[in-house]
Amino acid sequence: MSATGGGAMAGGRMAGRKRGAGFLHERVLRLLELRYPRPLTGLELVEMLLDTGEVVPPSQVYRALKRLIDAGEACKVLVAGGYVPAGPAPAMLFWCRGCGTVHAVACPELFARLEAGATEAGMRDVRSVIEVPGLCGRCAGRNPA
After folding, report:
1. Is there a cis peptide before residue 37, judged by omega within 30 degrees of 0?
2. N-to-C CA span, the chain
3. Per-residue pLDDT averaged across 90-105, rounded?
4. 54 pLDDT band (50/70/90 cuts)?
């Protein structure tokens, strides 16, 4: 079944169930954690929720992702076109062009330096994300340069 499919019957199944305000937030974060280091798109998350019987419109999933990003619990990986859970420390995101996985490497000293530079420039509420595309060791071994 597609992310937008399901029609009135699927919507009817959901109408009888009450969920807490943080339900979708927690479900989306759990799915990101289960699939890490593979980033997930918003539509993949919609499909995964649908597979578990939860009919959720894409707009609600994207709002949950925005809340997760704002809370520092998730990160959008632009080069990968998806989302991953965020760790407790600022990290560089290494994305493999071969297999698509993302590995976060904490480097608090680099991000502290970036924040200091931003402060000197008068910036506030700076959120730096450093993405580095390349090939992981496994994929590099398959594709010698």
Report:
1. yes
2. 41
3. 96
4. very high
- 115 vs 13, higher pLDDT: 115
Task: Tell me the longest C-alpha to C-alpha distance in the chain.
Answer: 57
6 sits in the region (left: phi over 0; alpha: psi -120 to 50; else beta) called: left
The per-residue pLDDT for 3 is 34
Separation between Cα atoms, residue 139 and residue 36, nearest integer Å: 18
- One-letter amino acid of 87: G
Contacts of 106 (CB under 8 A, 6+ apart): 87, 89, 90, 91
> Please, is 20 exposed, middle or buried when counting C-beta atoms within 10 Å of its C-beta (0-12, 13-18, 19+)?
exposed
